Amino acid sequence: MEQIKIKSFTLSELLVVMVITAIIVGIAFSVLNLVQKQIRRIQKNYAKTTELALLEQHLWQDFNLHNNAIYNEQKLLLFSDTDTITYSFTTDYTLRNTDTIPLKIEVSRMYYLGKEVQSGAIDALSVAAEKELPDYSIFVSSKHDASHFLNHDGL
């Protein structure tokens, strides 16, 4: 009787292939984990940038729709004959009336008629978001018409 030889792999060859496959799969999962972390970081930065852009837009609109602005003790009051907007700047978040903006914003400078002031009436405001995004700051100002100067004493 003649023996038939079947070509096949030995047990040791199969084990080597399985070990190499396991190593490659492990590396692939590690790379996938790193990519997922990077995507989450990008999503967080995008969310922060979007929130900051919306805050800047609200500040510009509020500054230019309201006649008067007063800043005292981490609070910005913008008021006109028909409406009042309040911004509260805390260490962990910012409030616009009852809307919470989950950003750490610091008021860095306030100005009135081109001069820096510490509190009281203002017409320009500089806020920094350094804790959220490096080198990100917002500067907003209001435009004064002739009636503003006529209605304020001492000018």
Features:
about 160 residues, alpha+beta, 6-stranded antiparallel beta sheet, 10 strands, about 40% helix, rod-shaped
Describe this structure in words.
It is a single chain. With 155 residues, this protein is α+β, with helices and mostly antiparallel strands. The protein is 39% helix and 28% strand. The chain is built from two helices and ten strands. The chain has helices at residues 11-65, 146-151, and strands at residues 68-72, 75-79, 84-89, 94-96, 99-101, 106-112, 115-117, 120-121, 124-128, 137-141. The mean pLDDT is 87.
What is shown here, in short?
With 155 residues, the protein is an alpha+beta fold. The protein has one domain.
Number of domains: 1
Structure class: alpha+beta
Radius of gyration: 30 Å
**What does the overall shape look like?**
rod-shaped
Measured between the Cα atoms of the first and last residue, the distance is: 120 Å
Tell me the strand percentage band. Answer: 25-35%
The biggest beta sheet reads:
6 strands, antiparallel
For the secondary structure, the number of strands is 10
What is the fold's blueprint, element by element?
Blueprint: H1 11-65, E1 68-72, E2 75-79, E3 84-89, E4 94-96, E5 99-101, E6 106-112, E7 115-117, E8 120-121, E9 124-128, E10 137-141, H2 146-151
Antiparallel strand pairs: 1-2, 1-8, 2-3, 3-4, 4-5, 6-7, 6-9, 9-10
